[in-house]
Design a protein that fits this description.
Elements lengths: L2 H6 L10 H11 L14 H14 L13 H14 L1 H16 L25 E4 L4 E4 L5
Antiparallel strand pairs: 1-2
């Protein structure tokens, strides 16, 4: 298979988009740059699939499989789409049908943030009973 055909063919990984979500994303990622420039010969679907694979597996940029587009191209689109807000639009586009399939409202009504409730250090600090939590706590003093 010639290199150009290899670069533009979609891969068959578990993280790859199916045809339905891809059809929803085409208007977001397949539009040419407003700054002009030479059109790319790399399939945008292969770029999106490579980014989804990297996100899911957590592998390094240089450890990607050989049948995905070149690292420099994938990284270039990642940087561009991060700056111009395309990733936020992609997330919104994919989230709404997924939540609808679960019989949920398309927009989340609450978000949960998790954080350590008591900050401590090795030095320690005051101790006391926290009546609201119903437990003993230790508060650290920073010097």
């Amino acid at each position: 298979m010639p290199y150009r055909a290899l670069r533009s063919s979609p891969t068959k990984y578990a993280t790859d988009l199916t045809d339905e979500p891809w059809a929803a994303l085409v208007p977001l990622v397949a539009t040419p740059s407003p700054n002009g420039g030479r059109p790319t010969d790399i399939d945008r679907r292969a770029i999106v699939n490579a980014l989804l694979s990297k996100n899911r597996t957590g592998r390094q940029w240089r450890m990607r499989p050989n049948d995905v587009p070149p690292m420099s191209s994938v990284r270039s689109y990642f940087d561009t789409w991060s700056r111009d807000g395309t990733f936020i639009k992609i997330n919104d586009t994919l989230r709404k049908p997924a939540r609808h399939a679960l019989s949920c409202d398309s927009e989340p009504s609450i978000s949960i943030l998790d954080a350590q409730s008591v900050t401590t250090t090795e030095a320690g600090g005051e101790r006391g009973y926290d009546g609201e939590k119903g437990q003993w706590t230790q508060t650290a003093t920073l010097s």
